[in-house]
Amino acid sequence: MALNSITRSQFPPTLSTSIQAGIKHMIYDETHLAMQTSLKKIITEKINPNVNQWEKSGKYPAHYIFNQLGKLGVFAANKPADFGGMGYDFAMSIAIAEQIGSIDCGSIPMSVMVQTDMSTPALSQFGSDFLRDQFLRPSISGDLVSSIAVSEPHAGSDVSAIRTTARRSGGDLIINGSKMWITNGEQADWACVLVNTSKNDNLHKNKSLVCIPLNSRGVHRSNRLDKMGMRSSDTVQLFFDDVRVPESYIIGEEGKGFIYQMKQFNDERLVTVAVGLLPLQKCLNDTLKYAKTRQIFGKTLLDQQAVQFRLAELEAELEATRSLLYRTVLSRCQGQDVTMLTAMSKLKIGRLARKITDECLQIWGGAGYLNDNSISRAFRDFRIFSIGAGCDEVMMQIIHKNQNKRTF
């Protein structure tokens, strides 16, 4: 049955009993697959035909696309039913992210995933009913576009080093500072912003997440940042100059923003892995097809054992990464701590994205170096996987920290 013929109220509240009963070899049931089928239709008909134009212009119509995706339920997957969500667990988010990866660029998937799994998880889990009604509900429907604002010019992976502050004035917060590399920043209606709300010397306990409408007085946006890749994703720097919002716009408990953000990072890291699977598979498929027809020294490229072995190894590594992701998601859905597995998955997709796009481009040679080649776009777009949501080095720190906890 096509998902777009089903109303949200008809969705069962949880995953199929077979998965809950412990089937380990799959994380998707017929409902996940129906979602992917309907999402693929929207991507094929309304997104991919326009991607090249949007990439050239450096911007895509986020409000229009989000509205279309909102009608399908893309932003509702694991959000509470009381505020327009579907109430699924995290496996549906991964199913959506994996299919979103079929968009013919990295920009729009990243932009969509900001709203599904980066700016809204803490609000969904810890926000007051008032905040969820104000910001979460219209974001789930796709009527609002959101962004996540954590990084600063001097504080990327070192989240504890942020300097943006929020001081109290009556019942309000007065916010000053700046945020860097803000995806959706030019078009977003609101941002989930990490700020210092106290002078506590413990840098992990002096921060809070705050919902800030971006039409507030004192909010300024830079010109669109000129990036190497992810061209149609509008990215800006945000400046907060005595921005006043009610203190009730703090998500959850004051001082727990760092903890909440670490939880959001785990969501972001896993959907990043899922988003990367299809485009990296496409790189391999397209390269294999090209190598079958490209003649060199009287033979095809694919007749060269070096090319055969290179593509075979990359295929095996991609399949291993997919399996690691699915294992991590299964464990998470069963309530296990998957911090270490999440870091491993994110590290692998970042490294593998670099390896696959680089080696495939090498096989394509001069043809791959042209900007209108999908391999060239993937090479530029997916380089960010080793940087965003915690760089490779941070992932290795997390892995080692958990590795060091073991008792032998």
Automatic annotation (TrEMBL):
- Tell me the Gene3D superfamilies matching this sequence: Acyl-CoA dehydrogenase/oxidase, N-terminal domain (1.10.540.10), Butyryl-CoA Dehydrogenase, subunit A, domain 2 (2.40.110.10), Butyryl-CoA Dehydrogenase, subunit A, domain 3 (1.20.140.10)
Q: Name one GO cellular component term.
A: cytoplasm
Q: Which cofactor does it need?
A: FAD
Q: Which GO terms describe its molecular function?
A: acyl-CoA dehydrogenase activity; flavin adenine dinucleotide binding
Does the keyword field hold Oxidoreductase? yes
Domain (Acyl-CoA dehydrogenase/oxidase N-terminal) ranges: 30-143
Q: Which family does it belong to?
A: Belongs to the acyl-CoA dehydrogenase family.
> Which UniProt keywords are listed?
FAD, Flavoprotein, Oxidoreductase
Alphabetized Pfam families for the sequence: Acyl-CoA_dh_1, Acyl-CoA_dh_M, Acyl-CoA_dh_N
Which superkingdom does the taxonomy of this entry point to? Answer: Eukaryota
Question: What is the name attached to this protein's record?
Answer: Acyl-CoA dehydrogenase
Q: Which organism is it from?
A: Caenorhabditis angaria
Q: GO biological process: any one?
A: fatty acid beta-oxidation using acyl-CoA dehydrogenase
The family database entries (PANTHER family) matched by this protein are listed as: ACYL-COA DEHYDROGENASE 6, MEDIUM-CHAIN SPECIFIC ACYL-COA DEHYDROGENASE, MITOCHONDRIAL-RELATED
Annotated Acyl-CoA oxidase/dehydrogenase middle domain residues: 148-243
Q: Where does the Acyl-CoA dehydrogenase/oxidase C-terminal domain start and stop, copy by copy?
A: 255-402
